[in-house]
Design brief:
The complex is a heterodimer. Chain A is mainly beta. In chain A, 0% of the residues lie in helices and 53% in strands. The chains are: A mainly beta, B mainly beta. Chains A and B meet through strand 5, strand 6, strand 10 and strand 11 of A and strand 4, strand 5, strand 9 and strand 10 of B.
């Protein structure tokens, strides 16, 4: 069974600073996709960034980037120039190419950006 | 921008009653999912649905649960006889392909009394 571990239940960062959220996973598969989702207090979950396991280049979306270490099964999210609107719960998730699209989520990290 | 919608936003029911949670996925998406999130806990997969049949279901998705796509646009989750432990936020999601980004709806908060 696949597992996703987010070891930081809560984190805080000052506005404009950089923060890194960690995520590790366990899998024997070689083809999979990794996602970071953001769930603000309004509760709707939205995609932050996506990484295909076969790509060595780390994904980047504006202020969000990942550090994907396939051998270490690590997929951390870096948020640069943190903004108050980044305050949310962040979930790491994995989806395998061979399954029915089921995503397995980590426990989540609650990030608070302080003014 | 297209989005997944869910109704109702909050449903309160008595234990033992049947509830139907409704979702309208994004129109060109082919894969549909239900997840639940008990307050303060992680998001848990319930079921995936493709080509009018269940592709995969979790151990949570027992005989009390069923899903249906009755009219080509709605995607419903039915709980036949609700239990207190069914109280949770239920999220519907859809994706174009099974390993693409899943777009989530805003959720339905189910409260079983």
């Amino acid at each position: 069974a696949q597992t996703v571990t987010q070891s930081q239940p809560e984190m805080s960062v000052q506005e404009a600073e950089t923060v890194t959220l960690s995520c590790t996973y366990d899998t024997s598969e070689s083809n999979y996709y990794l996602f970071w989702y953001k769930q603000p207090p309004s509760r709707q979950m939205i995609l932050v960034i996506r990484q295909e396991a076969y790509k060595q280049q780390n994904a980047t979306e504006n202020r969000f980037s990942v550090n994907f270490q396939k051998a270490a099964k690590s997929f951390s999210l870096k948020i640069s120039d943190s903004q108050l609107g980044d305050t949310a719960m962040y979930f790491c998730a994995i989806t395998y190419h061979t399954n029915a699209g089921k995503s397995t989520f980590g426990d989540g990290t609650t990030l608070t950006v302080k003014p | 921008e297209p989005e997944v919608t869910q109704t109702p936003s909050h449903q309160v029911t008595q234990m033992g009653q049947e509830v139907i949670l409704r979702c309208v996925p994004i129109s060109n998406h082919l894969y549909f999912y239900w997840y639940r999130q008990i307050l303060g806990q992680k998001v848990e997969f319930l079921v995936s649905f493709y080509n009018n049949e269940i592709s995969e279901k979790s151990e949570i998705f027992d005989d009390q649960f069923s899903v249906e796509r009755p009219d080509g646009s709605n995607f419903t989750l039915k709980i036949r006889s609700t239990k207190l432990e069914d109280s949770a936020m239920y999220f519907c999601a859809s994706s174009v392909l099974k390993y693409n980004e899943q777009f989530f709806g805003p959720g339905t908060r189910l409260t079983v009394l």
